[in-house]
Design brief:
With 299 residues, this protein is an alpha+beta fold. The protein folds into two domains: 177 residues, 3-Layer(aba) Sandwich (Trna Endonuclease, Chain: A, domain 1), CATH 3.40.1350; 96 residues, Alpha-Beta Plaits, CATH 3.30.70. Helix content is 29%, strand content 24%. The chain has a four-stranded mixed beta sheet, covered by helices on one side. Strands 4-5-7-8 form a four-stranded mixed beta sheet. It has a three-stranded antiparallel beta sheet with strand order 3-2-6. The relative contact order is 0.15.
């Protein structure tokens, strides 16, 4: 079974400057203010022509960050892990796509409907499990291939994570539709936004201790172990398996139970533990999604 703990959209601006729509202004304010990382205001920013490719980074050729590509290659080779990929993103420049959305429609020549006003809108997607995800691209080319009409805004990945939080997006999806699509889950998004290190839940010793302590009140639980969940791994577009970057479930909890329990007894234990975990602050902050596996304890 799967459980997720609680707690758990841009157009070319007209030549004359006008205030940003409220929802975009709020998102940008939540991501660091009304100006970009170079101190230039977002209001009145042109998103057409040459300025559409690079906004904040001089001499940027639009290529993917070398550190990110190296971490991804190490992951594919079995020499790295997804924590290293997220760590590489901490200093990487990425592109956030924005698209035109019709804000007001007017009547044109001959009574035909025509666009009167368009707003900027950050792009969000719906993940298969219904959660909101924000697409982010490591290169201008990958964004252009994904949606030719999208305008790229260059930001550091930490700023993109802040924008995701402001948009209530729990996932960052890197390079959707590309050779390798890598999903950054909610705890890692939060860590990236706060510019702190991230440890995957399945490799977190403090979380393991916390889960074990929660099971103390259930004598029939002989042992608790944590492992990577079935949704941690993913595949590249060519079918190559990757031991990271999947969308979840990310954490597998193995419960070793004493022999002789009937179905009602097992259900009572699992329900009780789910309730205890949901009230656990460490669990709520560090676990994105979980699958519970039951195993008979060795005699």
């Amino acid at each position: 079974m799967e459980h997720r703990p609680a707690g758990d959209s841009a157009a070319e601006l007209p030549a004359t400057s006008r205030p940003l729509p409220g929802h975009i202004a709020a998102a940008l304010a939540g991501a660091g203010g009304a100006a970009d990382s170079a101190g230039q205001p977002w209001a009145g920013r042109s998103l057409s022509g040459e300025s559409a490719s690079i906004h904040n980074f001089e001499d940027d050729d639009g290529a993917a960050d070398a550190g990110y590509l190296a971490a991804l290659a190490a992951l594919a080779a079995g020499d790295g892990d997804e924590a290293a990929v997220v760590a590489a993103l901490a200093t990487a420049r990425v592109f956030v796509p924005i698209l035109a959305t019709l804000a007001e429609e007017g009547e044109g020549a001959g009574g035909l409907h025509a666009d009167k006003q368009a707003d900027m809108a950050l792009v969000t997607l719906k993940a298969p499990d219904g959660r909101t995800a924000m697409p982010v691209f490591t290169s201008a080319a990958s964004l252009q291939a994904w949606h030719p009409e999208a305008r790229p805004v260059a930001v550091y990945a930490a700023r993109a994570a802040l924008s995701a939080v402001a948009e209530n997006a729990e996932l960052l999806v890197l390079d959707p539709g590309s050779a390798v699509t890598f999903v950054v889950r909610r705890p890692a998004v939060w860590a990236l936004a706060q510019q702190r290190d991230w440890t995957p839940s399945y490799a977190d010793p403090e979380l393991a201790r916390s889960l074990g302590e929660a099971a103390v009140g259930f004598p029939a639980v002989r042992r608790v172990e944590i492992h990577p969940g079935g949704g941690v791994a993913t595949r590249a577009a060519d079918g190559t398996p990757l031991p990271g970057g999947g969308s979840g479930p990310e954490l597998r909890v193995m419960l070793y139970l004493e022999d002789g329990l009937d179905a009602a007894g097992v259900q009572s234990i699992v329900s009780g533990l789910n309730g205890a975990w949901a009230r656990n602050e460490v669990f709520a902050e560090r676990v994105d999604s979980i699958e519970v596996k039951l195993q008979r304890a060795a005699q």
